[in-house]
Amino acid sequence: MGNRPRATLTEVAARAGVSKATASKVLNGRPGVADETRKAVRDAIAELEYVPSTGPRESPAPQTIHAVFDTLLNMYAVYVLDGIISGGRELGVETVTSSLEAETPGQNDPIGVDRIKAIAAQGAAGLVLVTAQLTTAEMDMCDQLGLPLVVIDPANPLDERVTSLGATNWAGGVQATRHLLDLGHTRIGFAGGPAGSLPARERLHGYREALESAGLEVDPALTGAGTFYAETGAVLTNRMLDLADPPTAIFAASDSIAVGVIRTARQRGLEVPRDLSVVGFDDTYNAMWIEPPLTTVKQPLRQMGRVAARTVLDLAAGKVPDSHHVQLATSLVVRESTAPPRRTG
C-alpha cells in the first residue's frame, strides 16, 4: 500500500453502497445481511485493501433512525413521531424525519427505491416507514442494502420479510360500533379512510362484524371511503343525512374525519349527540378539545412509535423479532359526543 492512507470502514461502506453498520456486520460475520450485500461489502474490502486496525478504532458516527411519513400534516403523525424520537433517545439514537410530500396528503404513496438508497448511504441504522405504500421492489432494495425496516400502519399487506406494527384496528371498529349499538342505535353510518388503506379496511370490517353480530344488515348507503381528513367527514355526512332514512350515529375512521362529521351536522342544524352521535378513532388532541369532547377509540400512538424505534434497532443488531406483525391493543374512551338516539313521535 506504500504511503497510501489506510482505508476506513466508512470508505468501505460508501464503496459498497451500504450503511457503516451493515459493513461492520459483514466484517464481523454477523447475520441479517443479504448474500448480495455481503458480496458487495467483501468486494469493497478487497478493492480498498481494507485491514481492520489493531490500534484505536474509528470514532463511531452517531447512529440515527430515519423515519419517513406519508405526511406530517396531522395529529396522528405528531403522536407517532414523538414516540419514535423518545424510543430512539432512550437507546442513545437520534431520529431524522421526512415526509413523502405528496400533492394529496393521505394517499399512501410509495417511498421509492432511490430514496431508500439515499437513506442507506447516509448511514442510517434503520428505516421506520409510517402509513405509506411499500412495493416489492422497495422491500427487495432494503434486503439488498441490509437496511433494517419497520413499517407502522402499513397501507398494504406485506410479506414476512418486513416487520410491521399497528393497533388492533378490527377490534377497535367492533368496540366503536358496539358502543353505539348498546346505546340503542340501529342506523349507524361508517365514514371511512382511503379504500386502499389496510387499517381503514380493518376498521370497516370491525364495524360490519359488530352490526352482523347484532343481527343487523349492513346498508351500503351508510358506508363510504375517502381520506383520513375532515373533508371526508363533511362529504360523507352530507350524503348520509340526505337519505330518506338517515343515520342516528356515525362511526368515523379517524378523529379528523369525526371533526368533519360534527361540524357538518351543526351546519345542518343538528345537535351532537342529541340528534347525531359520533365516534372517532385515534384519541388525539382533536378529540379532547372539540365541542362536544369526542368519544373515540384510543390507539397507543406514542407507544407504537417507541416500539418501532426499539424494533428497528434490534434488527440492526441482528436480533430476530418474535413476530413479524405486532398489534397493540385499542380501547374505547367515552366522552360527550355519544348518547342514546333521540326518540320522536
Shape descriptor reads elongated
So what's the CATH class of the largest domain? Answer: Alpha Beta
pLDDT below 50 for ≥5 consecutive residues: which ranges? Answer: 54-61
Assign a percent range to the helix content.
Answer: 40-55%
What is the CATH topology assignment of the largest domain?
Rossmann fold
Instruction: Describe the sheet with the most strands.
Output: 6 strands, parallel
Strand numbers in spatial order across the main sheet: 2-1-3-4-5-11
Helix/strand/pairing class, anyone? alpha/beta
Radius of gyration of CA atoms, rounded to a whole number: 24 Å
Span of the ends, CA to CA:
96 Å
CATH superfamily of the largest domain: Response regulator
Number of strands: 12
Please state the average pLDDT score: 88
Number of helices: 12
Provide the CATH architecture of the largest domain.
3-Layer(aba) Sandwich
Beta fraction of the residues?
15-25%
Number of individual domains? 3
Order of helices and strands: HHHEHEHEHEEHEHEHEHEHEHEE
How would you characterize this protein structure?
- By secondary structure, the chain is α/β, with parallel strands linked by helices.
- It has three domains: 1-61, 434 Repressor (Amino-terminal Domain); 64-168 and 300-328, Response regulator (Rossmann fold, 3-Layer(aba) Sandwich); 169-298, Response regulator (Rossmann fold).
- It contains twelve helices and twelve strands.
- It has a six-stranded parallel β-sheet, with helices on one face.
- Helix 6 links the parallel strand 3 (126-130) and strand 4.
- Residues 7-61 form the HTH lacI-type domain.
